[in-house]
Amino acid sequence: MKEANYYSIIPANVRYDEILSDRAKLLYGEISALSNKEGYCWATNAHFAELFKVSKKSISRNIQELVDRGYIISKILYEDKDIIVINKSPNMVV
Fold it and tell me: Per-residue pLDDT tens for 40-77?
């Protein structure tokens, strides 16, 4: 396993959201960590699928959970490549 030198933040409103799956919560943390450098996450669903040892379809569902709950904004810029921004709108506690 690669050792990274960045950290992950999962705010309380995400951690204690009873609707989110545990993997979606962990995925939020990974997105947070990757967003620390540029302010957004550029990783593909395939990257996350390999990292979590699940299918890309499972990752897509987890990302959709986070979008539906208003925790992230996901925009597809290229085929199979999302740009994910953590939602820091005024009504969110992050």
Answer: 888 888 899 999 999 999 999 999 999 999 998 887 76
Q: Which long-range contacts (CB under 8 A, 24 or more apart) does 30-36 make?
A: 31/66, 31/72, 31/84, 31/86, 32/8, 32/86, 33/4, 33/6, 33/7, 33/8, 33/9, 34/6, 35/84, 35/85, 35/86, 36/6, 36/7
The candidate with the shortest Cα–Cα distance to 14, out of 76, 81, 75, 62, is 62
Cα–Cα distances in Å, from 59 out to 23, 64, 91? 9, 8, 26
Structure tokens, 93? 């506690």
Strand partners, 84: 41, 74
85: alpha, beta or left? (left if phi > 0; alpha if psi -120 to 50): beta
pLDDT-based confidence at residue 11 (cuts at 50, 70, 90) = very high
pLDDT confidence of residue 91: 42
